[in-house]
Automatic annotation (TrEMBL), chain A:
The active site is at C86 (glycyl thioester intermediate). Its EC number is 2.3.2.23. CDD domains: UBCc_UBE2N. Belongs to the ubiquitin-conjugating enzyme family. It comes from Westerdykella ornata. Residues 2-148 form the UBC core domain. This is E2 ubiquitin-conjugating enzyme. The lineage of its organism: Eukaryota, Fungi, Dikarya, Ascomycota, Pezizomycotina. The keyword Nucleotide-binding applies. The keyword Transferase applies. One of its GO terms (molecular function) is ubiquitin conjugating enzyme activity. Keywords: ATP-binding, Nucleotide-binding, Transferase, Ubl conjugation pathway.
Automatic annotation (TrEMBL), chain B:
Residues 931-943 have a biased composition (Polar residues). It comes from the Eukaryota. It comes from Westerdykella ornata. Residues 474-679 form the Helicase ATP-binding domain. This is DNA repair protein rad5.
Length: 149, 1130
């Protein structure tokens, strides 16, 4: 299937005007499949880490949101052990006006502002609520352990 | 020919112009004038001085007063008294029999043993005479020498004349010995001798009485002929065509009932047979209203005679000496077959009509009787009629004619003028009527004995198609001073006709320089008082073409050389009789243009006035110089009142113009020929016998050949793709491209379509299962119609009047009750009926500005730049219209409330607005929008306006608008034509055009003549880039729309030919630029399937000659159509 104009344009733009701390590179054999890295935001337990994600644009993109998953282990109340992300714009709040770039920025923002009230990983969220300091520490350790380039 | 010999003139004429002839001849005529009366009746013959022996001996001793002798000698010549006595004895005093006996010599072999002495010598003298006459093919001088040249004796045909003999088989009805001897003379009787006349049966009794008896010398009935013979011999005898005499060839000594008896029959043609013709040919030109369509008794007799004659000639082995070369191809067998099948048909229809029907088909069933022609048959027919000679001389039109004619048009003019002027016809070589055959009278009988001959009548003529006989040379009469101009559409029939009007005309007497004044003798005024109008040509055309005729007539004439009058509506107040009469020649209109409708209504008025044409003062009160019927297939149905009215119009010259002289039945042509008064074809019985019957009995080649002989002298037809011998096109037309544009329905439209589709399919399947497909054909067809409409615009399916079947009534009531099943359709359609354009002023200026600014922005959804058909949500966020709608549908499919892609406000498809840019409108024609379209809020024409999606409704109208707008931008002056078969669809297109400020005009069947003319004139003359909306039906014929270069076909028709005809309104002669045609077809819909069926049909017509030559019956056609529908619904 020919690649829709929108995907081509987005890809081109991601290449031409990269966002700081974010990269997305399509696979050569499948232009709908992207290797993504997101730098952990400053002033967060993830600072200094480089997180790998995979991103896939389904056939009916942009009617449906892209599918995104962390490949790098991360300790985050909205990200489960499999790397799945709980983020409204990836689900009910998706809009075709959103793009890969904006989604990735959202994810980056999510790293800076975890939301334990809407958890995906229950144990992490629990910990986050009960012992935020300890949780942040664990997150930092995980970043140290898994997300160092 | 040698008109000095009055005897070569048609006998018929002599009857009426007796003063031309000598008294003697008169008496001959008196003699033959009661042809129906039996020529055998002696008292009549004895009065006649005609019957004088043909050896020239006149004197007669003492027997002058003997009726028997006089009669006898009148025929056989002088005989001795002994012979006379013997004959009288043998024949029982019956002169008729005696004459027969004398000639076949049976009186000698019969009971009387002594042969008269003088007999042999007389026989010998007769023989010499006969031989001489037989061998000498020029008029035997020997015969005429003894008498004066005008001696009528030799010119007259005897009451009967030997034609041939043959063997026949009979069977005895009695037993006994010595009833009949070998060589004994046998009388052949039609009815039992001495039977009371009351027991006679009438021919048209249900069971035909064909019994033919034969009697012995004593006049006693011996037996009957075998039915094989009796069947036709009886008709010949009943119709007084022939009489028969027999000789017994073999008979058993002792006869038992049922025994076979062999006879030799001698057949004589009766003189009355040759008179019959006058009575068979009904003179119905003057009794149109009573024109009998049924097969009359006459017609039936004719047919019986036809069969009988063919069988007789077969039996006596008589071959024509001359026959039409076409006719030769038709085997006699074929003739018989045709006639017999007519008989069978009649039997069948009788059976169907029960006891009531005589030859009984009602007029209604008659009108459907003619079978339709298959396309390839029509083609081959036309091909024959089209053998146009490119070397036909040209004629330059009169110098009052203001247009330049092309070469082929000048040739047409030559041909037409030739047809109109009798001179060309007078000098024409006399040729035998193509349907007749010439036979030579035998000069010797079966025993090689001579038979008497009649001077100047060596030949007789038979029409094997009708069984008519004649001793006169049947010349091919061409008394129609006009014809059929059947050039294909676009070749300029109108112009050709106008050149004829200019070139062949009478000039009012005041013009002394004119030498073309025809001295038209004033007819004696008869009761109806029809006035001659020697300067006037009447043009009858469909209403829609009146204005076109008038303007073309103006254009084609130099200033003031042609007075044209449109006789229609209010103009009808004039008295045509006064206006057009010869005395008023200077002021008389040269051309009166009127409509078929006017003809019909005046016809009704005149008939209400008991046919008093004169006092009516209208169209029927004058006898025109020329009548032209344009689009003459309007009168193709000879039963229609319009056709009958047209037949009644009087004129010297008659022309019909039509691109399709035969629409689908051969009968179509009949009506034209009838109007033209082409004898004898204008007689329906004649036509039926020669064309309809053979055609229906599948003898296509013969029927078509005959049709061709009818057409050939009458028709001039050229087609657009004819090439001159140099290989040039007759009319070089600019190229034409046809493009099929596939339309995607919007989701909502698709929903409606699917809904109707499923319903149609349900009905179809239910009927298919129940085996009632053929019965419920119309219901299914209505469903298909609705399906096609839903492809155009969903609203159409709810249009009143279109949907009228029961199911819709049920649906309506369901809707009224708010029932669920069809709720969805109701609400679906509602989406298309929401009214109104958003009031632009309601939005803040900044919103508009923002929207305008976004014009070149990228679509946030598909990244298209600029957006394709920018649209905005209710919250003013822009995207491509399609993206926006897709997204809304996507969300709806997932069961979530659609919201804005941008701000996530809940939105809804009805709150999407299209951004309309009016950049295709040049500032000048802002005021040109049709005033009767009160589209509010467009007074100051904003550059951008917002329009709620769904108002312009369907995908098709959208596509159309896209094309038109594009056209406006790229080619701002090009005019376009839009065809749809649904006027209600045109109604929906109109407001859409108005909204987009595209100037348009409308032309359909509901408009008055004035309005039509105004529309056409405006379309033609204005330099605005008009769009003309036409209904396929009203605009399919005649119109000339060459000022347009674009054609949009909104919906496909069942056969492409109809669409092609519509396209040819634009792509016809006069078109100077390339024509582009766009046919809109909804993808994945019934329309696509219709295209496939169209293609298949074209294929069949082109290549399937073998299969389609075997015509399909009605039943088969229906089945074929059901197959089509099956395909449509698959």
């Amino acid at each position: 299937m020919a690649l829709p104009k929108r995907i081509i344009k987005e890809t081109e733009r991601l290449m031409a005007e990269p966002v700081k701390g974010i990269s997305a590179v399509p696979h050569e054999d499948n232009l709908r499949y992207f290797d993504v890295t997101i730098d952990g935001p400053g002033q967060s337990p993830y600072e200094g880490g480089v997180f790998k994600l995979e991103l896939f644009l389904p056939d009916d993109y942009p009617m449906t949101p892209p599918k995104i998953r962390f490949l790098t282990k991360i300790y985050h109340p909205n990200i489960d052990r499999l790397g799945r992300i709980c983020l409204d714009v990836l689900k009910s709040n998706w809009s075709p006006a959103l793009q890969i770039r904006t989604i990735l920025l959202s994810i980056q923002a999510l790293l800076g502002a975890p939301n334990p009230d809407d958890p995906l990983a229950n144990d992490v969220a629990q910990k986050w609520k009960e012992d935020e300091k300890g949780a942040i520490e664990t997150a930092r350790q995980w970043t140290e352990q898994y997300a160092k380039p | 020919m040698d008109s000095t010999h009055f005897e070569t003139r048609p006998r018929k004429k002599r009857r009426f112009f007796a003063e031309d002839s000598s008294p003697v001849v008169q008496s001959i005529q008196r003699y033959s004038s009661p042809p129906a009366a039996s020529p055998q009746s002696p008292p009549k013959e004895v009065e006649s001085p005609v019957s004088i022996p043909d050896d020239g001996e006149t004197g007669q001793d003492g027997d002058e007063n003997d009726e028997f002798a006089g009669l006898l000698q009148a025929v056989v010549g002088r005989v001795s008294r002994e012979v006379l006595d013997a004959l009288k004895l043998r024949s029982g005093g019956d002169a008729q029999r005696a004459i027969n006996m004398y000639f076949d010599r049976s009186w000698k072999t019969a009971a009387e043993p002594t042969a008269p002495l003088r007999q042999p010598s007389l026989q010998a003298s007769l023989t010499t005479n006969m031989n001489r006459h037989g061998s000498d093919m020029s008029n035997a001088p020997m015969l005429s020498k003894p008498s004066t040249p005008l001696n009528p004796i030799l010119k007259s045909m005897p009451p009967k004349r030997y034609i041939g003999s043959f063997g026949a088989i009979g069977w005895a009805t009695k037993s006994g010995t010595g009833m009949l001897k070998h060589e004994e003379h046998v009388g052949i009787e039609r009815t039992k001798l001495r039977e009371p006349a009351g027991k006679r049966r009438i021919i048209n009794n249900k069971k035909q009485d064909v019994v033919v008896r034969f009697t012995n010398n004593r006049g006693e009935e011996v037996g009957r002929l075998e039915n094989d013979f009796a069947a036709w011999i009886s008709s010949l005898m009943d119709q007084k065509v022939c009489s028969f005499e027999g000789t017994c060839v073999y008979v058993p000594d002792r006869v038992r009932t049922g025994d076979t008896i062999y006879l030799q029959l001698r057949c004589y043609m009766l003189r009355s047979a040759f008179d019959k013709r006058k009575f068979v040919k009904p003179d119905n030109n003057r009794s149109v209203s009573l024109f009998a369509e049924k097969e009359s008794q006459d017609e039936k007799d004719l047919r019986l005679r036809q069969v009988a004659l063919v069988k007789l000639f077969e039996a006596i082995n008589l071959q024509p000496t001359r026959a039409n070369e076409n006719a030769e191809k038709y085997k006699r067998q074929g003739l018989l077959q045709a006639a017999e099948s007519a008989e069978n048909n009649e039997q069948k229809s009788k059976a169907r009509n029960g006891a009531t029907g005589e030859a009984g088909s009602s007029p209604a069933s008659e009108s459907e009787e003619g079978e339709e022609l298959e396309q390839d048959q029509l083609d081959s027919l036309y091909k024959k009629a089209q053998s146009f000679d490119f070397n036909t001389p040209e004629m330059t039109p009169a110098d009052t004619f203001a247009m330049d004619l092309r070469k082929y048009q000048k040739q047409a003019l030559y041909w037409m003028v030739g047809k109109e002027k009798d001179e060309s016809l007078k000098h024409k070589e006399e040729s035998m009527h193509p349907l007749w055959e010439e036979y030579e009278w035998p000069t010797k009988d079966a025993n090689n004995d001579p038979v008497p001959v009649v001077d100047d009548q060596k030949m007789f003529y038979v029409n094997p198609y009708s069984g008519e006989l004649s001793v006169e040379f049947p010349r091919q009469e061409q008394n129609c001073l006009g014809g059929i101009l059947a050039d294909e559409m676009g070749l300029g029939k109108t112009i050709e006709m106008l050149s004829l009007i200019h070139t062949h005309r009478n000039e009012p007497a005041r013009d002394h320089t004119s030498h073309t004044v025809h001295t038209l003798p004033r007819l004696p005024k008869h009761s109806v008082d029809v006035e001659k109008a020697p300067y006037t040509t009447l043009v009858v055309a469909p209403m829609s073409l009146l204005a076109q005729w008038a303007s073309e007539a103006e254009k084609a004439s130099k200033e003031g050389t042609l007075k044209v009058m449109v006789y229609y509506g209010s103009e009808k107040s004039v008295n045509l009789q006064r206006l057009c009469c010869e005395a008023n020649g200077v002021n008389a209109p040269n051309v009166i243009i009127t409509s078929y409708g006017t003809i019909l209504s005046e016809f009704n008025q005149v008939s209400a006035m008991d046919g008093n044409r004169g006092s009516h003062g209208g169209l029927f009160s004058v006898d025109y110089f020329r009548i032209i019927l344009d689009e003459a297939h309007y009168i193709k149905n000879r039963q229609s009142k319009t056709a009958k009215a047209c037949y009644e119009l009087m004129a010297t010259h008659r022309w019909v113009l039509t691109g399709t002289p035969i629409v689908n039945r051969l009968e179509d042509l009949f009506s034209l020929v009838r109007f033209l008064k082409v004898e004898p074809w204008s007689n329906f019985s004649f036509w039926k016998t020669f064309i309809t019957v053979p055609f229906e009995s599948k003898d296509f080649l013969r029927a078509l050949d005959v049709v061709q002989t009818v057409l050939e002298p009458l028709v001039l037809r050229r087609t657009k793709d004819m090439k001159t011998p140099e290989g040039e096109a007759l009319v070089p037309l600019p190229p034409r491209t046809i493009e099929v544009e596939k339309i995607e329905l919007s989701q909502d439209e698709r929903d409606v379509y699917e809904h109707i589709y499923l319903r149609a399919k349900r009905v179809f399947n239910a009927n298919a299962d129940a085996g009632t497909l053929l019965k419920s054909y119309t219901t299914i067809f209505a469903q298909i119609l609705r399906l096609r409409q839903s492809c155009c615009h969903p609203v159409l399916t709810r249009h009143q009047g279109i949907v009228a079947d029961e199911e819709d009534a049920a649906l309506a009531s369901d809707l009224a009750k708010g029932l669920a099943d069809d709720m969805d359709l109701g609400s679906l359609i509602e989406r298309f009926t929401t009214d109104g354009e958003q009031d632009v002023n309601r939005f803040g200026a900044h919103v508009l500005k923002q929207i305008q600014d976004e014009e070149h922005a990228e679509c946030p959804i598909c990244s298209e730049e600029p957006m394709v058909d920018q649209a905005v949500t209710g919250c003013w966020h822009s995207a491509c219209k399609e993206c926006l709608l897709n997204y809304i549908n996507h969300q709806r499919d997932k069961g979530i409330t659609p919201n804005c892609f941008n701000c996530r406000e809940p939105i809804n498809a009805r709150d999407i607005f299209e951004v309309i840019r009016h950049d295709h409108i040049s500032p000048t024609d802002n005021d040109n929008i049709r005033s009767d379209n009160p589209s509010s809020g467009t007074q100051q024409t904003p550059r951008v306006s917002l329009r709620r999606i769904g108002i312009t409704g369907s995908a098709k109208t959208q596509a159309l608008l896209t094309h038109l707008k594009h056209l406006r931008r790229t080619s701002p002056t090009t005019k376009s034509v839009i065809f749809s078969q649904f006027t209600s669809f045109l109604d929906l297109i109109e407001p859409a055009l108005a909204r987009d400020h595209i100037p348009f005009l409308r032309f359909d069947g509901s408009m008055s003549q004035k309005a039509r003319a105004a529309v056409l004139e405006e379309f033609r003359s204005s330099n605005k880039p008009y769009v003309l909306l036409l209904s396929l039906r009203a605009g399919g014929v005649g119109l000339n729309l060459t000022c347009a270069q674009r054609v949009f076909m909104m919906d496909p028709w069942w056969s492409f030919a109809v669409e092609a005809q519509a396209i040819d309104r634009v792509h016809r002669m006069g078109q100077e630029e390339e024509v582009k045609v766009v046919r809109f077809v909804v993808r994945g819909s019934i329309e696509e399937k219709m295209l496939r069926i169209q293609e298949r049909k074209m294929f069949i017509a082109d290549f399937g000659s073998a299969s389609s030559l075997g015509m399909m019956s009605d039943e088969e056609k229906r089945i074929q159509r059901i197959e089509d529908i099956k395909e449509l619904l698959s």
